[in-house]
Write a structure and sequence with these properties.
alpha/beta, Rossmann fold, seven-stranded mixed β-sheet, globular
């Protein structure tokens, strides 16, 4: 198997850290790591060599990636080989089409089912955890006041108010991190069953009583009815108006970002307030977000980082590599990877195989692309 050097702008992760290389070598795999692939994450070529990897970039039977490959990089893959990584196939139909044309068997770890057995393979959750942590640090650095309450000789400074929208993995980590910094934290989610999870990490739950169930299964939320959307906007507007920081993490199906914060909601916020839009990779939860940029609108700083996990590349690569390693070892028999299409995990994350797009939603996206 091959771990290439990532080429996307800002991508500092590597698909395997040395600890995962060692496990795969012990399981009987030959691991090649392209020279310099781990340097941005703090992993030297010598560290990979010590773990049992060889230095090469020649095409192999299985390629592991941290980022989505370009169409040109797909073209360099061996025909009929396998690719393992997070493809976000509905966002990247051109890449999916290229993979099918190349005859590559591609697995997308962001599509593994959210089951207990697959939890250790879920890169989406691993990276969301990092994003929730780092997003709060970005907010704390950008806001014009302290996070904690301080009692000084000059008087008392009240704690900052953080409002976290969405209580998935990123949201819960954001809550926990903001509480560690001493902030007063409020949080909401369209799934009322997460109320106890919000409270367990130290936030106060605020929410509306929905007319329709918003749980989509697998720990994800689905889009709301128009009536519930209107009632939710009222709640968000009221809570945002009194908050110093708003962290948005809402994604539908873990992929697409619903627009929750309108221009009018932002206009009602305090001057100097901060929004961190952690759903920027999916288009953003805030109407005024500019994915990949920080802007100021109505006196509010709006931060919309892309691929935030890549800014903590050492830990992100370590977790990512463990997710991929767990996936590979789960389907290893007699020191070789076995493609079992009857397995629910394989069925959930298999995107292309034998020249066909076999993932239903990815197939729809490619068909829409072909028709455009």
């Amino acid at each position: 198997m091959l771990v290439p050097r990532e080429t996307a702008p800002g991508e500092q992760r590597v698909a395997l850290a040395p600890d995962s290389v060692k496990k795969l070598v012990q399981a009987g795999y030959e691991v090649q790591v392209e020279a310099g692939a781990g340097l941005a994450a703090g992993f030297t070529d010598e560290a990979f060599a010590a773990a049992g990897a060889t230095s090469s970039d020649r095409p192999v039977d299985l390629t592991l990636r941290a980022g989505v490959p370009t169409e040109a990089e797909v073209g360099a893959l061996r025909e009929g080989s396998m690719l393992l990584g997070s493809l976000f196939p509905t966002r990247h139909p051109k890449v999916v089409r290229a993979l099918a044309a190349r005859g590559v068997t591609a697995f997308s770890t962001d599509a593994v089912p959210r089951t207990t057995r697959a939890q250790s393979m879920d890169t989406l959750s691993s990276m969301a955890n990092i994003a929730g942590y780092k997003g709060v640090l970005l907010a704390a650095a950008a806001m014009p006041r302290y996070c904690p309450m301080l009692m000084t000789a000059a008087g008392t400074i009240l704690p900052a108010k953080f409002f976290v929208i969405g209580a998935g993995v990123a949201g819960l980590q954001a809550i926990a991190t903001a509480r560690r910094l001493g902030a007063s934290v409020f949080a909401t989610d369209v799934r009322p069953e997460v109320k106890e999870q919000i409270q367990s990490v130290g936030a106060k739950y605020v929410g509306i009583e929905l007319r329709q169930d918003a749980a989509a299964g697998g720990g994800y939320a689905k889009d709301l009815s128009e009536e519930d959307k209107a009632r939710q906007r009222e709640l968000l507007a009221e809570q945002c108006a009194v908050s110093d920081v708003v962290v948005t993490t809402a994604l539908i199906g873990g992929v697409f970002a619903p627009r929750l914060l309108t221009r009018s909601i932002v206009a009602r916020m305090k001057p100097g307030a901060v929004i961190v839009d952690l759903a920027a990779d999916g288009g953003g939860n805030c109407e005024l977000s500019k994915p990949g940029r920080t802007v100021v609108e109505h006196g509010v700083t709006i931060i919309a980082p892309l691929n935030l996990a890549a800014t903590l590349p050492a830990d992100a690569s370590t977790l990512w590599g463990r997710n991929l390693t767990n996936f590979i070892l789960a389907f290893t028999k007699d020191r070789a990877f076995v493609l079992n299409r009857d397995d629910e995990i394989i069925r959930g994350c298999l995107v292309t195989h034998q020249g066909q797009v076999v993932h239903a939603r990815a197939k729809e996206a490619v068909e829409a692309l072909n028709a455009s």
